Amino acid sequence: MNLQFNLLVFIIISIFKCDSSQNRPRSPSKFEPQYNPRYRLNPTQLMLSNELPPGDQTGQALEDFDARLTGRIVGGKTAQEGDIQYQLRIEARTAPKRLRRCGASLVLAFGVQFGVTAAHCLTSRNDTKVTLSPKVVNIIAGAYNVKNFTGREQRRNVTRLVIHHLYDSSDEHKRPFEDIGLVFFSSPFKVTKLISPILLPDQNWDQPDEVLLSGWGFTSSRGPKMRPDILQTLWTPTIPIQFCKMNFEYDGIKLSERQICNLKDKAGACGGDSGGPAAARNVTNRRWYLAGIASYNLGLCGSGMYPSVYVRVSSYINWIKRHVSDYKKANK
Ligand SMILES: *[C@@H]1O[C@H](CO)[C@@H](O)[C@H](O)[C@H]1NC(C)=O
Ligand SMILES: *[C@@H]1O[C@H](CO)[C@@H](O)[C@H](O)[C@H]1NC(C)=O
Ligand SMILES: *[C@@H]1O[C@H](CO)[C@@H](O)[C@H](O)[C@H]1NC(C)=O
Ligand SMILES: *[C@@H]1O[C@H](CO)[C@@H](O)[C@H](O)[C@H]1NC(C)=O
């Protein structure tokens, strides 16, 4: 745990050093959203879910773009191995030729180790009300360069998947609420210097001013989709939810207090980052907490004009607790 904090302190310091001007939270009063219909995609494309045929990951076309990668979520930094020890990678075989890749966070709470992710990472392709079979889901901790596994990462099978019972994205004109899911493993991950769980926040946590995002999602949203091999990180300011509602709700799209909006110039989460963490530090005890879960973008990712929307984890503590107790009872 200490090692994790030291490493993370180190990243924060180095990110602030390199990029201190851009890391200040944006003052809402100064921010004027510019609506540009060109950047407005069809809502289903805005989902961060990243489901492509397996060939796409190693396809020649993508290899050609690797040389141009400079390291971003969109606009982020390439992590050092071991920086984000709670980062999980979910691989779900949703159909014989479909591999869905998502992020998740390794959490230790209520005496159990489990994964926290987005509901939309765990639903069937055909019916968003149906949870995937645990058999088709594999989970990896300690992953870093996903094209060059080292043997230091650990894989687990999944024994139970839970999605929020009110989650529904079947109406593509509605953005999903309650986009949260839990993943229980065949056995706990061994804590190493690359793998260590993060804590849940308190129920009454105020929204942090900034959060640390991480994932293997696209590093560009226009032109060719560039998929990084190495985990990307980004510190991004959050914006007050009332301000986000006032400026970005449109066409029946509703936001809620149970979500967090993040907005940063030319940077943000993108397709493939779904389910992944937004982490923050408790100002009192300096420990890391899982503040949010990547859910969707309100517009083109990385344009700096539309926020990404994360599930606010502190709003779901009771829900998580209930499902962890159910799991414990079933596994006595
Ligand atoms: C999903 O739908 C497709 C086409 O409608 C069908 O071929 C496939 O078997 C379905 N998959 C599942 C898991 O139900
Ligand atoms: C994979 O990583 C190892 C170090 O962990 C390195 O020595 C090796 O060159 C890498 N291989 C490729 C193909 O990048
Ligand atoms: C996962 O399940 C498969 C098939 O049942 C088994 O072969 C494999 O060893 C399991 N892996 C782990 C890490 O438990
Ligand atoms: C932060 O830490 C303090 C002191 O341990 C604790 O009282 C508070 O609930 C924590 N906040 C969160 C969000 O967990």
UniProtKB/TrEMBL annotation:
Similarity comment: Belongs to the peptidase S1 family. CLIP subfamily.
Annotated Pfam families: Trypsin
SUPFAM superfamilies to which the protein is assigned, alphabetical: Trypsin-like serine proteases
Signal peptide boundaries: 1-20
Kinase as UniProt keyword: no
Keywords, in A-Z order: Disulfide bond, Signal
CDD domains linked to this entry: Tryp_SPc
Keyword S-adenosyl-L-methionine: no
Classification lineage: Eukaryota, Metazoa, Ecdysozoa, Arthropoda, Hexapoda
Species this chain originates from: Orchesella dallaii
Listed name of the protein: Peptidase S1 domain-containing protein
Stretches assigned to the Peptidase S1 domain: 73-325
InterPro entries: Peptidase_S1_PA, Peptidase_S1_PA_chymotrypsin, Ser/Thr_Proteases_Immune/Dev, Trypsin_dom, TRYPSIN_HIS
